[in-house]
Amino acid sequence: EAGVAQSPRYKIIEKRQSVAFWCNPISGHATLYWYQQILGQGPKLLIQFQNNGVVDDSQLPKDRFSAERLKGVDSTLKIQPAKLEDSAVYLCASSFRQGLTDTQYFGPGTRLTVL
Amino acid sequence: AQSVTQLDSQVPVFEEAPVELRCNYSSSVSVYLFWYVQYPNQGLQLLLKYLSGSTLVKGINGFEAEFNKSQTSFHLRKPSVHISDTAEYFCAVSLQGGKIIFGQGTELSVKP
């Protein structure tokens, strides 16, 4: 079974530029998550999709971050314009319901450096 | 709101020694608890989870964790570590199927 795919793996941009990340979840997983992991911290949920609808985006900085999941499969996360503090690893995860709870499967992440 | 505290940011240990990574959580209601491992330049992988039932949970790679409701703890243990266990370990909590909140992580460094 193929895992969660993310691209690019690494991205370096200058502040005020825009950037986009792509995620392809595991086939059949209805739920998709984007996390931000700043160096030395645990992942923080940015947005959660159920199929192509948003379930939780309470921690997404909506003035600069946007995400979409067209057709309930692939997803893109965009930052425009980027700030220095956006330097982090952006993790995508997908899940399906197994009994009492979902088990999340994570992609390898995209490491963003903003100069 | 629930939260997670991992009490050690770094744990150095020699190969074949036992290890315990400590995790405390706070919540006024029942929670689900998880441990994830993150190897360098990779995403997170689920080690084990506690949802209900037996308080001793066994996971992959020889790890186990014990849920202690009175102490609000979910410490991770392994009786004998290998070099390959060197990684970052994250404790996490969710409100019965809701959003997962991760701790700050514990860097386990296994030395020969």
How are the secondary structure elements laid out?
The complex is a heterodimer of chains A (115) and B (112).
Chain A: E1 5-7, E2 10-13, E3 19-24, E4 31-37, E5 44-50, E6 53-56, E7 65-68, E8 75-79, E9 88-98, E10 101-106, E11 110-114
Parallel strand pairs in A: 2-11
Antiparallel strand pairs in A: 1-3, 3-8, 4-5, 4-9, 5-6, 7-8, 9-10, 9-11
Chain B: E1 3-6, E2 10-14, E3 19-21, E4 23-26, E5 32-38, E6 44-50, E7 56-58, E8 64-68, E9 73-78, E10 87-94, E11 100-102, E12 106-111
Parallel strand pairs in B: 2-12
Antiparallel strand pairs in B: 1-4, 3-9, 5-6, 5-10, 7-8, 8-9, 10-11, 10-12
Tell me roughly what share of residues is in helical segments of chain B. under 10%
- Major sheet characteristics of chain B: 6 strands, mixed
Query: Which oligomeric form is depicted?
Result: heterodimer
The ordered H/E elements of chain B are EEEEEEEEEEEE
* Order of secondary-structure elements of chain A: EEEEEEEEEEE
In helices, the fraction of residues of chain A equals under 10%
Q: What percentage of amino acids of chain B are in beta strands?
A: over 45%
Largest interface: A-B, 22 and 22 residues
What is the β-strand count of chain A? 11
What spatial form of chain A do the alpha-carbon principal axes imply?
Answer: globular
Radius of gyration computed on alpha carbons of chain A:
14 Å
Write down the overall mean pLDDT of chain B: 92
How many H/I helical runs of chain A?
0
